[in-house]
Write a structure and sequence with these properties.
Radius of gyration: 19 Å
Largest sheet: 7 strands, parallel
Oligomer: single chain
Order of helices and strands: EHEHEHEHEHEEHEEEHEEHEHH
Number of helices: 10
Helix content: 25-40%
Shape: globular
Strand order of the largest sheet: 3-2-1-4-5-6-11
Distance between the termini: 45 Å
Strand content: 15-25%
Amino acid sequence: MRILVTGCAGFIGMHLALRLLARGDEVVGVDNLNDYYDVGLKQARLAHIGQRPGFRFVRMDLADASAVGDLFGQGHFDGVVNLAAQPGVRYSLINPQAYAQSNLVAFVNLLEGCRHGRVGHFVYASSSSVYGGNTRVPFSESDNVDHPVSLYAATKKSNELMAHTYSHLFGLPTTGLRFFTVYGPWGRPDMSATLFARAILEGRPIDVFNNGDMERDFTYIDDIVEGVVRVLDRPAAPDPDFDPAQPDPATSHAPWRIYNIGNHQPVRLGDYIAAMEHAIGVAARRNLLPMQPGDVKSTCADTAALRDAVGFAPATPLAEGLRRFVAWVREYYGFPAGRAG
């Protein structure tokens, strides 16, 4: 197939592009290479993809409607996977305009491109953050998600609603994937995994929010990619059992679906740090801090719907995922193997 992957220089985008290329798909990768975090890491990810047959990179701002229209006019895409977005919960308190442009304007431009380009399936990254103030765990796709606690979460919920509109009006198959705390090699430097690993290896204290009284459903990157690929190959279809009198937020009369992709194994922050310490072989120094605005105390994915739909749910143990991740951190950032810097 010919697949458009947006955010291809990002963490998940790079891994997905490699997986699609390995199975023989043609991949057009788009990224604007913005400086929200180290551009050098993004360029290194692109270099890791390299000159593999079937890959073409386009540097583009997806908020530019004309450029997006030209991209779709250059040839048909069988599928589009949108991983481009302005990430980060806390940054949305500082620069909300970036989220409006990258997560809303760019998203509708892609929907328009898919509509007019007659794309077979539009898959997009949503987020576990849409569950917001929900305290019932595990989080189910059928739960109400009308109480976001950050602008980032609000934009992701908006993406789900915008996609539903295009599925309803134009019959465009769309599937939103709510990712849960993704980690692994080539991860973002602003995420806890990289922040913790580098600090421990450099002998610096780590910032532990809410005094460590938090849980996260840490999900290894290979599991995320496996879920994305399986969903991509199964275009959303109308739910024949959908009842408009009692609507299920996870399904629709239109070709629209929402799935969680998480490990279904929430881990206390203290246990996560202990697993990181074991993988590195060095004890961490903790700087205990209060809960940050926009954060939630716990996340846990109900993955039954994903398993029923595509026969897969993430299951990589945290210890194994962190072992692979720490090995990459040592290599990429130049730490000697087996001891702290």
